[in-house]
Every structure is written in C-alpha cells, then in structure tokens.
C-alpha cells in the first residue's frame, strides 16, 4: 500500500486525478470505478479542469458505480446514479452510454446484484476504483463486519452512516435503510484501488485502515491485501498515522519513472 500525504483536499484531488489521467493516457477505454460522497469531489473537479483545458481526453472512458440506495424512485436526485451523472458524467462530457451501475429500483434485488457482477466481468473488470471512506471505515456501502469475500449484494446501513448521509436528504427518515453495494471482493478485483480522504473526521478510520489490524470491523483494511492500493490523504486525515513521517519520506523519494 502506498500512502500519499498532501496539504489539503484540493491537492488530494489533483494527485488522484493525475493517477486517472495516467491510466487514460495508456488505456483510453479504461473502466473507471467512481465513488459518491464529498471526498472524491475534488478529484472530479480536477479531472473536469484537465478536460476543459484540453490536457485530457476522456471521450472513450467508461464509468461504473460502487453502490446504490434501494427503493429511491428513478430520477431521485440523491440516487447514486443521479449523483454520478451530475458530478462525473456531465462535467466530463460523458453520457449514460458509458456508464454501468446496479439497479436499486429492481423488483428482484439479488438478481440485479448478480447482473451487475456479470456486467463488470463482461466489461473486462475495473481498471481503477476510486474510493472514499465512511467515518466507520466502510468502503462502498460495506459496513463494519462485511466479509472480505463479499460480492455485490444488499446491505443494511448502520445508524451512523444514515446520520452521516442525512445531510443529502431532507431528514434522517428519508435516508434509505437498504442499499446495493459491490462487495469487498468485488472492489478488490479492480486492478488499482485509490482511496481518498480529507479532514479530521476521517483520521481514525484512516489510521485503522492503514496501520490497524486486518479486520472485517474496518472494511477498508482489506486494502492491505491488495497488490496495488494507493491511499491519498490530506494532513488532517493523516493526523493519527504513526508512520506518517516514513510515508512522507517515501513519497518525496519516489523515483520519477514510477507512477502511482
Ligand atoms: N457509499 C458512500 C461511500 O462510498 C463514501 O465513501 C462515504 C463517505 O462519504 P464522504 O466522502 O462524504 O464522507 O459515503 C457513502 O457512504
């Protein structure tokens, strides 16, 4: 696992966008897994800026979604499909044609989960999966104690996650209780995992992810098992890392030929 510590949220976005730009330069039709939440927004802003400046061509890029609420009516502004369209597809000039996501409005949810697993496989697998992290260490919607071998399935949100996400809805009651999410094994199939976090509220989850024991109670600790995982954090999110100085020195001495 490589840990990159930078000054602030905007710098987190620039470094992660650089990794995506490097991928697209070599593989224009790459499959990019995107995440919702506030953490990845600076990444999308940095990508959109590069596209607008003519520095990056994403016209062939394909996008896929990590997770989705169950039961929101189609077109609900907080469905993750709508969020990704608003925050990723439109700013990058992409359409729903280049987008894969699980169907949270399906009558048969297990079948929708199996169909999404199949779609990801048939698309050739995810090249780079961008991840945020919940304050309880969840990735996607894999709440604490999710199995490391889990595939896409229905999960129940914890009270804490529903409280965290209530800011996007009118009230806590409007936050769905159930979701579909890529499992931890599904996420780990991606060839490169890039987790971004900023702010003090994520410091404990980041310390447990990077330096804590491998434990289902911290779902993001599964990144420790991945052959190519990068964690990009700002100083506040890094503030509880015991090995921060080593991580800084390692990144500062990174050979120029070596990409993230
Ligand atoms: N399912 C999403 C996660 O993918 C995201 O990482 C998390 C953190 O969001 P934020 O970055 O806003 O703290 O929110 C939701 O639970």
UniProtKB/TrEMBL annotation:
- From the UniProt record, give one GO term of the biological process aspect: glucosamine catabolic process
Task: Please name the PROSITE patterns in this protein's record.
Answer: GLC_GALNAC_ISOMERASE
Write out the GO MF terms: glucosamine-6-phosphate deaminase activity; identical protein binding
Task: Report the top EC class in one word.
Answer: hydrolase
InterPro entries per the record?
A: Glc/Gal-6P_isomerase (IPR006148), Glucosamine6P_isomerase (IPR004547), Glucosamine6P_isomerase_CS (IPR018321), NagB/RpiA_transferase-like (IPR037171)
A Pfam family cross-referenced in the UniProt record is Glucosamine_iso
What EC identifiers does the entry list? Answer: 3.5.99.6
Per the database record, which ranges form the Glucosamine/galactosamine-6-phosphate isomerase domain?
11-224
Database matches in SUPFAM superfamilies = NagB/RpiA/CoA transferase-like (SSF100950)
Summary of the function given for this chain in its UniProt record: Catalyzes the reversible isomerization-deamination of glucosamine 6-phosphate (GlcN6P) to form fructose 6-phosphate (Fru6P) and ammonium ion.
**What is the official name of this protein in its record?**
Glucosamine-6-phosphate deaminase
> Which species expresses this protein natively?
Actinokineospora globicatena
Q: What is the lineage of its organism?
A: Bacteria, Bacillati, Actinomycetota, Actinomycetes, Pseudonocardiales
Q: Which gene encodes it?
A: nagB
């Amino acid at each position: 696992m490589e840990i990159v510590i930078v000054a602030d949220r905007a710098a987190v976005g620039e470094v992660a966008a650089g990794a995506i730009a490097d991928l697209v330069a070599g593989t224009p039709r790459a499959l990019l897994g995107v995440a919702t939440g506030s953490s990845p927004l600076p990444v999308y802003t940095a990508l959109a800026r590069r596209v607008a400046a003519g520095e990056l061509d994403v016209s062939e890029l394909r996008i896929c979604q990590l997770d989705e609420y169950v039961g929101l009516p189609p077109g609900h502004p907080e469905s993750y499909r709508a969020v990704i369209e608003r925050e990723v597809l439109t700013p990058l000039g992409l359409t729903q044609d280049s987008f894969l996501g699980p169907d949270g409005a399906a009558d048969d949810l297990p079948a929708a989960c199996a169909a999404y697993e199949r779609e990801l496989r048939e698309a050739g697998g995810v090249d780079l999966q961008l991840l945020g992290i919940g304050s309880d260490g969840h990735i996607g919607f894999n709440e604490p104690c999710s199995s490391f071998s889990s595939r896409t399935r229905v999960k129940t949100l914890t009270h804490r996650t529903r409280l965290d996400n209530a800011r996007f809805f009118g009230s806590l009651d409007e936050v769905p209780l159930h979701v579909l999410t890529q499992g931890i094994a599904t996420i780990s199939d991606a060839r490169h995992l890039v987790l971004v976090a900023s702010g003090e509220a994520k410091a404990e989850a980041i310390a447990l992810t990077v330096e804590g024991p491998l434990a289902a109670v911290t779902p993001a600790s599964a990144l420790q098992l991945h052959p190519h995982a990068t964690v990009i954090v700002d100083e506040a999110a890094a503030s509880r890392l015991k090995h921060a100085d080593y991580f800084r020195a390692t990144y500062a001495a990174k050979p120029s030929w070596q990409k993230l």
